[in-house]
Amino acid sequence: MEIRSLQYAVTLAEELHFGRAARRHHIATPPFGRHIRRLERELGRTLFQRSSRRVTLTPEGERFVDRARAILADINELAASLRADGGMPYAREPHRHSGPPRPCSCWGARRRST
């Protein structure tokens, strides 16, 4: 499970609208919805009840979102604490398009047996 999954579920619980929740994360609605469905499949539980007019939390969804909020708060507190101690100057995810991975320089030093 990804941190992003927790964030998306919490946002959807706050908005109770896929479009508004997706906009808050700066993504289109279809991929946002797919991410929520994938999370539900991963958990084996329906977190959100959907109809053509509304989205509501299921009892399992309420439990999940409450715990997700606590976990996200713990993560934010940990990051702030590390930054304050000088152990982590900044925290951000690497950019998705930062380029392909480069081979380790030690790969070239390996001898080939002939």
Automatic annotation (TrEMBL):
Cellular component, GO annotation: protein-DNA complex
Glycoprotein listed as a keyword: no
GO-annotated molecular function: DNA binding; DNA-binding transcription factor activity
Gene3D superfamilies: Winged helix-like DNA-binding domain superfamily/Winged helix DNA-binding domain
Region of interest called Disordered, as start-end residue ranges on this chain: 89-114
Keywords, ordered alphabetically: DNA-binding, Transcription, Transcription regulation
HTH lysR-type domain location: 1-58
Stored PROSITE patterns: HTH_LYSR
Listed PANTHER family: HCA OPERON TRANSCRIPTIONAL ACTIVATOR HCAR, TRANSCRIPTIONAL DUAL REGULATOR HCAR-RELATED
Family: Belongs to the LysR transcriptional regulatory family.
Protein's name in the database: LysR family transcriptional regulator
